[in-house]
Amino acid sequence: NFDQEPFDRVIGDRGPVLALYGTVSDPKFPQFLSTLYQSSLSGKLRFVWRYTPQPHTQRELLSGYGVDLTLKRTDYIVIDDRELTGSEPQIVLKDDKLLDRPN
């Protein structure tokens, strides 16, 4: 019984299903794929190719590139000081509640 994945493309319309796991960089891959394709055209089998990365693949290191994550405070305390003069009394806030300014 074959569990088909949503990304599978089954080649062929009749015969047993063969799932091929591999990578295109393998030197034997083109010939093997060609043989499977010819067998699927003749109705001997159906096949699905699923890519698998090479286990010994090394990561590429790029010099000169970096990533910086800067977190900054996004809540701002805003005080409207456009109409204040130096002679007016300052307002004291208590318990995080804004008190009305005395007239």
Structure, explained:
The protein has 103 residues and is largely without helices or strands. The protein has a domain at 1-54. Helix content is 13%, strand content 12%. It contains one helix and two strands. The protein has a two-stranded parallel sheet with strand order 1-2. Strand 1 (17-22), helix 1 and strand 2 (46-51) form a beta-alpha-beta unit. The longest helix has 13 residues, at 29-41. The protein is elongated. The termini are far apart.
List keywords for this structure.
little secondary structure, 13% helix, 103 residues
Could you provide a short overview of the structure?
It is built from 1 helix and 2 strands.
Spatially, the strands of the biggest sheet line up as 1-2
E-strand count: 2
The level of helicity is: 10-25%
Subunit arrangement of the protein: single chain
Per the principal axes of the C-alpha atoms, what is the gross shape?
elongated
Low-confidence stretches: none
Which series of helices and strands comes N to C? Answer: EHE
Report strand %: 5-15%
What is the count of DSSP helices, taking H or I runs of 4+ residues? 1
Layout of helices and strands:
Layout: E1 17-22, H1 29-41, E2 46-51
Parallel strand pairs: 1-2
